[in-house]
Design goal:
single chain; alpha/beta; 22 helices; 6 strands; 7% strand
Length: 465
């Protein structure tokens, strides 16, 4: 037992932190996309195209099944069931990171450092604290497992796990290309095998693409996924910043909460680790190992860099930062100053994580308050409700600091408060002023297009019946 604690202390620590993580995330209520994603409660029939094939923007059958399970008893299961899956997925990802580092022949101490670095990193919080992020966590989990299978020359299992990762989230497909590339960079395969297996990886990707074409589908292109002129440069900046810099994003980026001094204070304790990993090792960045890691990171991030990149997407990229941390730790003796760098990083990360958690909790609470108020003012059940939103330019930040109307879920939070009994139909529209909202509400009611109108002006709710 003592030997196990000494050798695998990071895994024991992660396991001990799981109950704490679950207790922390379960009270966080849905906001924004949580209300409209495929993991939201679904009360329709199970055997539908929606649950098994490409539907809307994605092909994510696991999301649909989660939504179907949550829909059996939304009051009990949503969002607690979703949070449990995310917390478990994050913990399993940490264990998979440890296993991956061992497969790559890193020292046990290095494996422990890399695992803890991943588990507490604030860059994971947009995934860990969200309700609809099971796809992100399990896509990475199956992707890492696919890479481990590849290292063990179990190529059929590798292909199967890559496709499983892709059916959790599309970027999981990138592990088909990443696996031979990383194996080559770490000296586990040669150039000829890399070229041959890259062609095989493209074949795996072609199977996925062919299935989308041949099987039933209902494809919609979201406007956010249409690239603009500066989309890629802006997304690259976001990716680099969230992946490599550890600071309190709220104090730095959210205008109403901006506290530059506090942001600086949360960044300073992480500097020693940053210095040892990225500054002291900079001269080695041109080596085959580092170049393969950088290329793999680019491939993993590519689907989001070309479309829409948010803090949640850093989760799938962070594993490559872990490889850089592990490479740096393995190549340098652990002096007293280097031993101090990890505790400082962990301490500041936990402080930042706590702040991000608090703001996520508060955002969800705002949505619930608005939903309760809308139901209270409506009084008796209605069949149709129209949400008229007064345009709100209040600053937001990822899923941590959500504007009230997004926390309200454009009216869907109110449906949840009635256990999805009423209203049966909710739609929304956005206007520029409160006067315009009142005029719009009267017109909708006069023409009998709805049974009631919920006017949303920031946090304020007014109901007209």
């Amino acid at each position: 037992m003592k030997r196990s604690l000494n050798n695998y202390w990071s895994l024991w620590l992660v396991a001990a932190m799981l109950p704490v993580l679950i207790c922390a995330v379960v009270p966080i209520l849905p906001t924004h996309d949580d209300w409209t994603s495929l993991t939201a409660p679904y009360t329709g029939p199970f055997f539908t195209k929606r649950n098994f094939f490409f539907f809307g923007y994605h092909w994510r059958p696991f999301d649909c099944w989660i939504g179907y399970i949550a829909g059996r008893d939304p009051a009990l299961l949503f969002p607690a069931f979703n949070h449990l899956l995310v917390a478990l997925g994050h913990t399993l990802c940490a264990a998979a990171v440890f296993r991956m580092l061992r497969e790559l022949n890193f020292r046990l101490t290095t494996c422990n450092i890399g695992t803890l670095f991943f588990y507490v990193n604030p860059a994971t919080m947009a995934t860990v604290l969200a309700v609809d992020s099971q796809n992100q966590a399990y896509s990475l989990l199956w992707g890492i497992m696919a890479f481990i299978a590849y290292l063990r020359h179990r190529y059929v299992l590798w292909a199967a796990l890559v496709l499983t990762a892709a059916l959790c989230k599309e970027n999981g497909l990138m592990w088909a290309l990443i696996s031979p590339l990383l194996a080559f960079g770490f000296g586990r395969t040669d150039g000829t095998t890399l070229r041959r297996h890259t062609l095989l990886a493209l074949g795996i990707m072609a199977v996925y693409g062919g299935a989308i074409v041949l099987l039933p589908r209902d494809i919609t292109i979201h406007s956010d996924y249409i690239p603009e002129a500066l989309t890629v440069p802006k997304n690259v900046v976001k990716c680099v910043f969230t992946s490599f810099f550890t600071t309190d994003y709220i104090y730095l980026l959210h205008q109403p909460s901006r506290r530059p001094l506090l942001a600086l204070l949360t960044w300073l304790p992480s500097l020693p680790l940053f210095w040892f990993v990225f500054v002291r090792q900079a001269r080695h960045f041109a080596t085959k190992r580092y170049l393969s890691i950088f290329c793999a990171m680019t491939i993993a991030a590519a689907p989001h860099l070309l479309t829409a990149y948010s803090m949640m997407h850093t989760y799938g990229v962070l594993v490559f930062v872990v490889l850089m941390v592990a490479t740096a730790a393995d190549s340098q003796p652990l002096s007293a100053s280097r031993r101090l760098a990890l505790p400082l990083f962990v301490l500041t990360s936990l402080c930042i994580d706590g702040h991000l958690w608090h703001e996520s909790l508060r955002s969800g609470a705002v949505g619930k308050q608005m939903a309760v108020e809308a139901i209270r003012q409506t009084g008796t059940p209605v069949e149709r409700a129209k949400v008229v939103i007064v345009k709100d330019d209040f600053p937001k930040l990822s899923s941590f600091c959500v504007i009230p109307v997004d926390a309200f879920g454009w009216g869907l939070a109110a449906c949840y408060e009635t256990d999805y009994n009423w209203p049966r139909q909710v739609s929304d529209t956005t206007v520029n002023s409160r006067q315009e909202a009142v005029s719009c509400a009267r017109q909708l009611l006069q023409t009998k297009q709805t049974d009631c109108v919920w006017i949303v002006d920031h946090k304020r709710i007014n109901v007209i019946k």
